[in-house]
Design brief:
5 helices; elongated; mainly alpha; 2 domains
């Protein structure tokens, strides 16, 4: 938990990787924006003139490339995770630093707060928004 909220996630010689966190956050924002508009456009539409205005707007390009941002997000996440795994394997002489089930359990604990938040969001706020 301490490493998750640390100010610096990388050591001094790897501080170039800090920019990858920015790209991941940008990708997440574009993905959420794109999925929101895809959800709106997949429902029953009543005013096609508004939809035509959306599609002809230059800002709508962010919505169109949202599915490509998913690939960028997965690629960067895979790169960072494989780099961290190889770094730990190198530090331990080629041996895993922990049992593989312990690694999976730590990953589960890292993702659990996000799942709990999304379930709470869908349960509480979507009823207020009208979704």
């Amino acid at each position: 938990m301490k490493k998750l909220f640390a100010e610096r996630k990388y050591e001094k010689e790897e501080e170039e990787f800090e920019i990858l966190n920015l790209v991941k956050v940008y990708s997440i924002g574009v993905i959420v924006l794109g999925n929101t508009y895809y959800y709106i456009l997949s429902g029953p539409l009543q005013n096609l003139d508004i939809v035509y205005e959306w599609i002809s707007s230059p800002n709508f390009l962010l919505v169109i490339v949202a599915d490509l941002q998913v690939d960028v997000f997965y690629w960067i996440t895979g790169f960072v995770l494989s780099f961290a795994t190889l770094k730990k394997l190198n530090a331990n002489g080629g041996m895993f630093w922990a049992h593989p089930l312990k690694i999976l359990f730590q990953r589960y604990l890292r993702l659990l707060p996000l799942y709990v938040f999304m379930i709470f969001f869908l349960w509480f706020f979507m009823g207020l928004i009208g979704g």
